[in-house]
Design brief:
Largest sheet: 8 strands, parallel
Mean pLDDT: 90
Number of strands: 14
Strand content: 5-15%
Low-confidence stretches: 341-371, 374-381
Structural class: alpha/beta
Length: 567
């Protein structure tokens, strides 16, 4: 039998347990640590972060390297949600994030974008996407979900989430809906602490669980757990990731989910800072998890693997629990075409590539982009534009939402514009800090405006504040691109000061959370873009210039403006 034709029953206990782990590593090429985890422990998969990926071409080479190290094909996972949460941008289309998709409200385009994104990911060797996010974000103070959610309406979240997961899976990658049973109504970030959702079962059933029921009915491949306490189901204060009552009693037995249950990363502080990573892995597997995610430290990864092994030998975890989990992981790999004979895979790969080494056939519309955009640009110097790029642009254009002041559009072209660009300079566990060239100011220049642009931090320094106020003295229009101003008092204070100046028009353009109006309530013109990615900045500038209509609908309630509001 070829190595990819082996049955999981042939694996010894150590490797069966290894198949239940997805691990991360540092670097653009396989580290000694990840090589050890693959070769010695037989881990089931790897997870990529921005630290691992430069562009599509390098990502494809890395995936091939890692697969060559393993005698059992690996799940290669990524958080490519779109919008503000993407791990790879060069050589692939960055699709809008969930809340932008919710504002666009187009199921067909939602499916198309996910399908094309799935094709691109699969063409570079990535076969599992930790998306879509099915959390219902009905809490404006949520520090970790926010624009990663389709909105506050559970039916809309369910409808769009189902289209996205179908698109990913039809495009060739497994989808993992997250974060079960729901992380949308929290005021704490589970990367830092252990949140609690205190609602009763009736409310949870009507809101938080509704999108997951729809995803299960639609055949989602995997569901990712939340490090959140739900007292209605787990009165002992055990987080969902570690709870047999939730993972087995609720998800398996009541909701009848038959796919793979994957934990969120156990190195998040909600687990690492409480029960610990190693013990967390034991409890997660006991509770019903099939895949355990440990994304960063080798010492924690090995400790978790060894702890599960010891728990099986001691009889704490029944061997039958390991076998059923391996069987589910194996069936997922088989479903996604990872267990076909090596010769068959090679032959298929050759058949799909032309002399330039680019995918062709069904993947021309998306997968081809990953190879062509990461190679040399055409002689004209114009970047290759693909069907995936077009889908991202159309979704972005449909998402831009004018909440108030539509009569003030378009902005007069003859007036001098100051664009203030707030940017994250310190990365978080979810969103990396990236200095972006395609800012709103750059996009407005392309629309024909005379623009001066100043960048500030999320809480601007005294020097940044003075520079902005000095430049504003000669500007006739100030466009403030806010980034979570509702969470940053210094940014909000500067925006309010600019808004109060009598000698210039003021526009508040939220390029992340739509709740920023609460921080600058006097803004005469408020427009939401939900993210600061290049396609969205082009769309936002197009609306401000009057070239594009503002067709987006608010996916969440913002102060006095209810969800569903259009213009």
């Amino acid at each position: 039998m070829g190595k990819t034709e082996r049955a999981w029953q042939e694996l010894d206990l150590k490797w069966k347990i290894g198949q239940l782990f997805v691990c991360g590593f540092d670097g653009l090429s396989p580290s000694a640590g990840i090589e050890r985890l693959i070769g010695e422990y037989g881990i089931g998969g790897v997870v990529y972060f921005r630290r691992n990926l430069r562009d599509a071409k390098q990502a494809a080479a890395l995936s091939a390297q890692l697969q060559s190290l393993s005698s059992v094909p690996l799940l290669t996972a990524i958080d490519q949600e779109g919008g503000m949460v993407v791990r790879l941008e060069e050589g692939v289309a960055v699709m809008p994030g969930a809340m932008a998709v919710g504002a666009a409200g187009n199921p067909e385009l939602t499916y198309e974008a996910a399908f094309l994104a799935g094709q691109e990911l699969r063409s570079i060797g990535i076969n599992l996407n930790f998306a879509p996010c099915l959390d219902v974000n009905n809490n404006p103070e949520n520090p970790v979900i926010g624009v990663r959610s389709y909105g506050e309406n559970p039916e809309a979240v369910a409808a769009l989430g189902v289209q996205a997961l179908r698109g990913y899976q039809d495009g060739g990658v497994a989808a993992a809906a997250k974060h079960f049973p729901g992380h949308g109504d929290t005021t704490a970030d589970s990367h830092r602490e252990l949140p609690v959702v205190p609602h009763g079962r009736d409310r949870l059933d009507a809101v938080e669980l509704l999108p997951f029921r729809a995803a299960i009915a639609a055949g989602v491949d995997a569901i990712m757990t939340a490090h959140v306490v739900f007292p209605a189901y787990e009165p002992d204060g055990t987080p969902a990731t570690l709870s047999r009552r939730i993972l087995t009693g609720l998800l398996r037995e009541r909701l009848a989910f038959r796919g793979v249950v994957v934990t969120d990363c156990l190195e998040m502080n909600a687990i690492a800072g409480t029960i610990g990573v190693a013990r967390g892995a034991v409890e997660a597997v006991k509770g019903g998890a099939d895949l355990v995610l440990v994304s960063h430290r080798l010492d924690r990864q090995i400790a978790a693997l060894e702890a599960v092994h010891e728990a099986v030998l001691a009889g704490e975890i029944p061997l039958s629990r390991i076998d059923e989990a391996v069987d589910r992981v194996w069936r997922l790999k088989e479903k996604r075409g990872l267990l076909r004979a090596e010769a068959e895979k090679v032959a298929e790969s050759e058949a799909r590539r032309d002399a330039a080494g680019r995918p062709r056939g069904a993947a021309e519309s998306a997968g081809e982009a990953a190879a062509s955009r990461s190679s040399a640009p055409p002689a004209s110097g114009i970047p290759v534009r693909t069907a995936a790029d077009d889908a991202a642009a159309r979704l972005s254009e449909a998402a831009v939402t004018v909440v108030k002041g539509e009569a003030l559009l378009p902005l007069p072209r003859e007036k001098r514009v100051l664009a203030v660009w707030a940017e994250a300079r310190v990365g978080t566990e979810v969103v990396e800090a990236i200095e972006q060239e395609r800012t709103l100011g750059a996009a407005l220049r392309e629309e024909g405006y005379a623009v001066a642009e100043l960048r500030i931090g999320l809480d601007p320094t005294a020097a940044e504040r003075e520079a902005v106020l000095r430049e504003a003295e000669t500007a006739e229009t100030v466009v403030f691109a806010s980034y979570d101003a509702a969470f940053h008092a210094g940014q909000a204070a500067l925006a309010n000061e600019l808004c109060g100046r009598p000698d210039s028009a003021f526009v508040l353009a939220a390029v992340r959370t739509p709740y920023d109006l609460s921080a600058v309530p006097a803004a005469p013109l408020y427009i939401c873009a939900y993210e600061n990615k290049p396609a969205m900045m082009a769309a936002l500038a197009g609306v401000l210039a009057g070239r594009l209509p503002a067709g987006g609908v608010l996916p969440v309630t913002v102060g006095a403006y209810p969800a569903g509001r259009r213009g």
